[in-house]
Amino acid sequence: MLMGEFQHNIDTKGRLFMPVKLREALGDHFIITRGLDGCLFVYDEQEWNVLVNKLKQMTLMKKEARDIARYFFSGATEIECDKQGRILVPTSLRTHAALDKNAVIVGVGNRAEIWDINRWNTYNEEVNEDVTEIVEQLVDLGL
Q1: CA 129: distance to chain centroid?
Q2: What is the tally of structural domains in the chain?
Q3: What are phi and psi of 70, to 5 degrees?
Q4: Residue 63 parent element (H or E)
């Protein structure tokens, strides 16, 4: 399980240090792609394959299914850490997540997410205001 929150800088070449705890859980190779809410999703190979299989099960006759498959697959790239534990985040993904200098890497169960620190702080402020209501809705749904 991936969990925790880690703040790190992105250097001028687009490299980001991946925390040891997350690197150990993700393995030697992992997949990074566009995420939702303005962040990047990071999957180990097993969880990536789970997502791939779910996307394969969607019918290509529906525009939404084609759109979501394109969204995740076109932005995906396999990543490997260098000897210093850094990953090179592709320019297109840095642009998608508005990553410039300060990033936050969070473990979210089956994946990690990479956020621009300002987006992360804004997101947390918005969610914290509504978290009680969100939990109550999920409980009503049996989750």
Answers
A1: 23
A2: 1
A3: -60, -40
A4: helix 63-74
Tell me the CATH number at 35: 3.40.1550.20
Q: Domain containing 19: what range?
A: 2-116
Contact 96, 34 (CB under 8 A): yes
Interatomic CA distance for residues 64 and 72, integer angstroms: 12
Tens-digit pLDDT profile for residues 16-44: 999 999 999 999 899 999 999 999 999 99
User: Is 11 in a helix, a strand, or coil?
Assistant: coil
Instruction: Measure the CA–CA gap between 45 and 48, rounded to whole angstroms.
Output: 5
Q: Would the pTM count as exceeding 0.70?
A: yes
How large is the average pLDDT for residues 119-143? 82
Residue whose C-alpha is closest to residue 102's, from 15, 7, 5: 7
Q: Average of pLDDT values for 109-129?
A: 93
Cβ atoms of 34 and 93 within 8 Å: the answer is yes
What is d(CA 107, CA 113) in angstroms, rounded to the nearest whole number?
Answer: 6
